[in-house]
Amino acid sequence: MAAAMARHVAERLGENPNLTAVVGGDFNVGETDLAKSGTDPADDRTDGYDDTHALLAGGLVDGLRLRSLTREMGNTYCDTRGDGVFPYPGVGAIDVLYVGGAEAERFGEASRGRDTFGSDRYPVWAERAP
């Protein structure tokens, strides 16, 4: 599914040089989770079993290289035990935003909300400079 999404974004950006694409969602595997995130779709044994982030940012699909706005954010999963200790250290943001295209550089790094509003995740957003 991630490869199909990456191909679709690459095709749209290729068709329209003025287009800016923002891809976001709950990807369930954090970009910085080295145990799960891979870079080789053909290798799920030694390279991590989920290549979603590499497919969107690593040029694996038609040279697509979207920029992550959430990579340095830290976790977006809530501390479900309520003890202030994140239950999955090293995972990073699993709710992510990527941007590419004509106005990609106008987007700042994403921010994380302070309240989950009843969810097990914090909201994320990014602002685009005028």
Separation, N- and C-terminal Cα atoms: 33 Å
| % residues in beta strands | 15-25%
| Global morphology | flat
Mean pLDDT: 90
How many distinct beta strands? 5
- How are helices and strands ordered from N to C? HEHEEEE
- Please give the order of strands in the largest beta sheet: 1-3-2
* Distinct helical segment count: 2
Radius of gyration: 15 Å
Largest sheet: 3 strands, antiparallel
What structural class results from the helix and strand content? alpha+beta
Quick take:
This protein has 130 residues and is α+β, with helices and mostly antiparallel strands. The chain has helices at 2-15, 52-57, and strands at 20-26, 67-68, 95-101, 111-112, 124-125. It is flat, with a radius of gyration of 15 Å.
Explain this structure.
This protein is of the alpha+beta class and 130 residues long. 15% of the residues lie in helices and 15% in strands. It has helices at 2-15, 52-57, and strands spanning 20-26, 67-68, 95-101, 111-112, 124-125. The strands form two sheets. Strands 1-3-2 form a three-stranded antiparallel beta sheet, with no helix packed on it. Strands 4-5 form a two-stranded antiparallel sheet. The relative contact order is 0.21.
